[in-house]
Amino acid sequence: MRDAAINIRAEPNQRDLIDQAAKLLGKNRSDFMLEAACERAQSILLDQVYFQIIEGQFTQFLELLDTATEYNSGLEKLLTVQPPWKVNRS
Prior knowledge:
Structural class: mainly alpha
Mean pLDDT: 90
Distance between the termini: 49 Å
Order of helices and strands: HHHH
Number of helices: 4
Shape: flat
Strand content: under 5%
Helix content: 55-70%
Oligomer: single chain
Radius of gyration: 23 Å
Low-confidence stretches: none
């Protein structure tokens, strides 16, 4: 039994689009939205956390991780730039 509520507001055209797609799959709006949201969430998590490497390249990958990097002035400058959401706009 589902007991955790998720509430969302949408534009009428968005709701209608979702309803149309859900109907084509024989699902109700809630089931369709929950399935789509879970698929997207899994995709994002896998993209951010998991990667696959061919066995023969694993040693090379480890060597690259252990190799010291050269100084990069462009990267140094980039790391000092404030992101837009932290810029004081008063």
